[in-house]
Amino acid sequence: MPNGITAIAAAKPPRPSAAHDAMTLPLVEPLRIGDLVVDPPILQAPMAGYTNYAFRQIVRSFGGAGLLATEMVNARGFVWMDKELAEHPDRLWGVADEPRPLAVQIWDNDPDTLAQVGARLAHEYKVSVVDINFGCPVRQVTEKAHSGSYLLRTPDRMGQIIERVVAACHPTPVTAKTRLGCSRDKINIIDVAQIVEGAGAAALTVHGRTAADMFRGEASWDLISQIKPHLKRIPLIGNGDLDTADKVVEAFRRWNVDGVMIARASLNKPWLFQQAAAALRGEPVPPDPTVEEERALMVEHFRLVCERFGEERGAVLMRKFACCYAQGRPGAREFRKHVVMIDTAREFFDVVATYFPKA
C-alpha cells in the first residue's frame, strides 16, 4: 500500500463535521454478531465485481470499517470449480490469508449447496462471518437463478436455507442480507425478519429499497427502523444511501439500528469508513485525500489487481475502478472516456498522466 495514506490524511487539518458540531452524538455500542465484536459498527457491503481483495486492502489502509466483506460468491459455481478445476473462485482471492474479521457472502437457492459451501468457508477458510444474500435484485440472480431477492417471495424457504447453513457453519455466525420486499406493494420485511431470527441467523442487514426499486429513489430508513421491535435477540444493520460521515451519524441518531453498512458510496470514497468512524467518536473528520494522493491510491489499486490477474486482464478489470476514483471531479467524463479503452499498463499510466482530473 502507499505508505501512510491514513497518516497523510491525519496530518492535514481535519474539516469540521455537522455531526461533530452537534452537542449530542448518538450512543453507539460495538455490534455483536454471535461471539464476534464489530467495532466500530460500520460494515463494508459486499458488491459483485468490486469488493475484491484489492479494494478491501485500500479500505483497510484507511481504517474505520469494523467488518469487511468479499464480493458475493455463487455457491453452485464454487462447488463446480472445486470439483472440475481444483481451484476456487476469483471472488475468494486473498480470503485465506488476509486479516480478520472478514465476511464472505454466498448466494444460491439450494440449502444443501449453500450449507456445503458455508461449511468450507467457516471451517477451512476460517472466515469470521458467512452471510447469505437474499437481496440482490439483478435479473441474472433473481429470474434466472431464483436466488437473491427472488427468495423474498418464499420466506419459509429462506428459513430452511438459514437453518441448514447455520448448522453447517457452527460456531461461525451466519447472517442474512435482504431488502424490504419484492415491491412497494409487497413489503414483507417484518415477517422475513422474524423468520431470519427464528432460523438461527446472528444478524440481519436490510437495504431500504425493494427488489423492484433496484437502486432507484431513496432508501426507506423509516421502514428499516420499524423492524427492530420485532427482533428479540439479533442486531439490525441498516443499508442504503450512506454517502457521508454525517449521514452515518444521523442513521444512528435517528433510526433504530445497531449497525450500518456502507455500499456504493465507498467505491469512489474508500476513506468514507475512516471519516464515519471519526464522526461517531465525536472527533474531527479527516479530509478527503488530495488529487495526488488519490492518484497514488488508484495506481496502488492497479498494481494489486495486476499482481493477481496479470497485466492484460488487470487492465480490463481496472477500467471500472478507475472511473470510480475520478467520479465527481471536474474532467471525470473525459478521463472515463479514455480509461475504459485501456488494455495495457502503459496505456493505463498514459491515460492517468494525461486525463486524470487535476483538481
TrEMBL record:
Q: Give the transmembrane ranges.
A: none
Which residues act catalytically here?
A: 136
Task: List, for all copies, the residue spans of the domain called DUS-like FMN-binding.
Answer: 44-347
Q: What keyword terms does UniProt attach to this protein?
A: Flavoprotein, FMN, NADP, Nucleotide-binding, Oxidoreductase, RNA-binding, tRNA processing, tRNA-binding
Q: Where does FMN bind?
A: 46-48, 105, 177, 207, 263-264
Which InterPro entries does this one have? Aldolase_TIM, DUS-like_FMN-bd, DUS_fam, DusB-like, tRNA-dHydroUridine_Synthase_C, tRNA_hU_synthase_CS
Q: Which GO terms describe its molecular function?
A: flavin adenine dinucleotide binding; tRNA binding; tRNA dihydrouridine synthase activity
Q: Which family does it belong to?
A: Belongs to the dus family.
The record's PANTHER family line, in alphabetical order, gives:
TRNA-DIHYDROURIDINE(47) SYNTHASE [NAD(P)(+)]-LIKE
Query: Its biological function?
Result: Catalyzes the synthesis of 5,6-dihydrouridine (D), a modified base found in the D-loop of most tRNAs, via the reduction of the C5-C6 double bond in target uridines.
Q: Supply the NCBIfam families for this chain.
A: nifR3_yhdG
This protein is called: tRNA-dihydrouridine synthase
Native species of this protein?
A: Botrimarina colliarenosi
- Give the organism's phylogenetic lineage: Bacteria, Pseudomonadati, Planctomycetota, Planctomycetia, Pirellulales
